[in-house]
Amino acid sequence: MAGYVSSASAPAASSAQTDLVNCDIRTVTPDEAAQLLGVNAQTLAMWTERFGYPARAPSRGSGRGYPYTEVVALRDALVSEVSVASAVRKAQRRPRVHAHGEP
Predict the structure, then answer these.
(1) Distances from the Cα of 77 to the Cαs of 10, 13, 15, 58, 83, in angstroms?
(2) In this structure, are residues 88 and 81 in contact, taking their beta carbons and an 8 Å threshold?
(3) What is the pTM of this model?
(4) What is d(CA 29, CA 45) in angstroms, rounded to the nearest whole number?
(5) How many CA atoms lie within 13 A of 77 on its CB side?
(6) Could you tell me if residue 2 is inside a domain?
(7) 42 in Cβ contact with 49 (< 8 Å)
(8) Is 17 exposed, middle or buried (0-12, 13-18, 19+ CB in 10 A)?
(9) 32 by DSSP, 3-state: which?
(10) How many angstroms separate the CA atoms of 54 and 70, rounded?
(11) Is residue 59 part of a domain?
């Protein structure tokens, strides 16, 4: 469900799905990303500024969000890493998953 969406495999349905295909990735709002990571939005913004990860991306609507796959990769890496910097490096090495589940 999360991950990249190929326009060739995406069904032509709602405008929300079309917007998702157009921005090529599923995004979450800064508040949603912060909640997934267990931090506040200001901490997440600081990590993005300091480490460049997770990167801000165009999202549905007029705002910018965070790629869901990057947020989840960072959340998973934070479980096993001692520092945020090492978690970011580990998350950046994680292969991205396409919508159909293949790397």
Answers:
(1) 29, 35, 34, 24, 10
(2) no
(3) 0.66
(4) 12
(5) 21
(6) no
(7) no
(8) middle
(9) helix
(10) 6
(11) yes
Q: For the chain, how many structural domains are there in total?
A: 1
22-53 confidence digits (pLDDT tens): 445 789 999 999 999 999 999 999 999 999 99
Smallest CA-to-CA distance from 92 within 56, 55, 66, 65 is with 55
First to last CA, the chain: 13
Parent domain of 57: 15-93
Q: Is residue 102 part of a domain?
A: no
Q: What is the pLDDT of residues 51-100, one digit of tens each?
A: 999 999 876 666 789 999 999 999 999 999 989 999 999 999 987 654 44
Is the distance from CB of 65 to CB of 53 less than 8 angstroms? no
